[in-house]
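#structure-requests
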Amino acid sequence: MFCPGLLLHVSRPVRWDSDHVVVLDDELQAIAKEVVRSGKLARRIYLGLDYFDASINRVAAWVIGMRSLLKALLIALLEPAASLRAAEGRMDFTRRLALFEEAKALPWAAVWTTTALPRRFRSE
């Protein structure tokens, strides 16, 4: 009521391998897709991450978590949202399913590698 947008705290439950550090998993990708699909990513949704981990370097935990969220947002931004909406609007659920399945194979990693890393860090 008093906040101009949605404040979303993204974390990961405590597991045996690390505590709370955000990783690129199915849950994070689902959150990113919902945020992007809402159309409010740049204006109304604020994402906060949890970086605590007692067993690894805190700076590394911060970097890994942030990069994981950025990768999830990239995957969501590459989704063919207009085509999916059009298929759903026509009640063509076969087409929608086919588009969802094809989107799983999109080369998001190639986009990430060529756009996210400064040239000196790329393995070319």
